[in-house]
């Protein structure tokens, strides 16, 4: 009987890729997802890749009784990877109360119940947005946490503090917080990938939909930034590379490889890439032109941010491996599958 891991938000973009890597590492997986921002067909994609259909319960983690019942029926859960959250920066500005309720209460429900069910490992999906616009680049885990630029970013900061304080109060579990930079791409099988709801907010799915002719042209939000080509710079990391880090984090806690009860890691490539550079890399990798127009800046955008991944490289023994071009080709292959 393999060790069972609960993956909340496991039918989502990063969650589904993590479920595949967990299964291929020998873990049993239970997914809890409310399907508010993903769809059930993702389970077919996961099964097509691994041959194993993960256990699945559709549940809103705000439903404490429902969560208690699921944990009662799954007594062999050894750890939790918590992805489930609302994650659109712009939407969070319009609907802050929904974001604070969904992203914070659900975390509290999980942490509340872990001790009773003997669940001792908790991986939290966090974000480089906690750094705001770093003063020093590349950004390390010791960089100061700056006031959030959005309610979404604030919920990530608050959740990190909740986890820190829970562990400081000696609640009986360990946690690893993973701060993602910009996850992009899709599984090489093209069985799973990013499924934006409606008009994509993020850059790469908008590019692939434009390349497919679904969108007329890409709006590039500003080219008057203090960067070499004037467009924003990001650390775009392959989603499978990112998923692999979650398995390493769970292994690390289950095998007691560290005496620390709380660890934080930046998950990035260490390379900054501008919006225009990414567009050109996509065109070179796929041979498909992407019509775009420079428009005004998007409110809340950070000018430039990329990771110093040295700590994760050295301590976790994890490193992003996939090239930007291969990653963009995987996104394009997935889009062609979706049509
Ligand atoms: C990237 C760059 C845009 C769309 C978000 C979340 C962050 C993390 C990663 C979860 C920016 C530009 C975008 C478009 C554009 N998610 N852009 N035209 O904002 O860096 O980060 O995703 O952890 O928390 O905030 O990602 O892909 O939206 O934007 O020019 O149509 O592309 O201005 O410079 P972002 P993004």
Instruction: Return the average pLDDT rounded to an integer.
Output: 96
Q: What is the CA-CA span between the terminal residues?
A: 39 Å
Pick out the low-confidence regions.
Answer: none
Rg over C-alpha atoms, rounded to the nearest angstrom:
19 Å
Query: Quick one: overall form?
Result: globular
Please count the helical segments. 11
Order of strands across the main sheet: 3-2-1-4-5-6-11
The percentage helix is 25-40%
Each distinct ligand: UDP-4-deoxy-4-formamido-beta-L-arabinopyranose
Describe the overall structure.
With 339 residues, the protein is of the alpha/beta class. The N and C termini lie far apart (39 Å). The protein is built from 11 helices and 13 strands. The model has no long low-confidence stretch (mean pLDDT 96). It has a 7-stranded parallel sheet, sandwiched between helices. Helix 5 runs parallel beside helix 6. Strand 5, helix 6 (151-168) and strand 6 form a beta-alpha-beta unit. The longest helix has 18 residues, at 96-113. Helix content is 39%, strand content 17%. UDP-4-deoxy-4-formamido-beta-L-arabinopyranose (WQD) binds next to helix 7 and strand 8.
Describe the protein's topology.
Blueprint: E1 4-8, H1 13-24, E2 28-33, H2 42-50, E3 55-58, H3 64-73, E4 77-82, H4 89-94, H5 96-113, E5 121-127, H6 151-168, E6 174-180, E7 182-184, H7 203-211, E8 218-221, E9 233-234, E10 236-238, H8 239-254, E11 262-267, E12 273-274, H9 275-286, E13 292-295, H10 310-316, H11 324-338
Parallel strand pairs: 1-2, 1-4, 2-3, 4-5, 5-6, 6-11, 7-10, 8-13
Antiparallel strand pairs: 9-12
Helix pairs in contact: 1-2, 1-8, 5-6, 7-11, 9-11
The structure holds UDP-4-deoxy-4-formamido-beta-L-arabinopyranose.
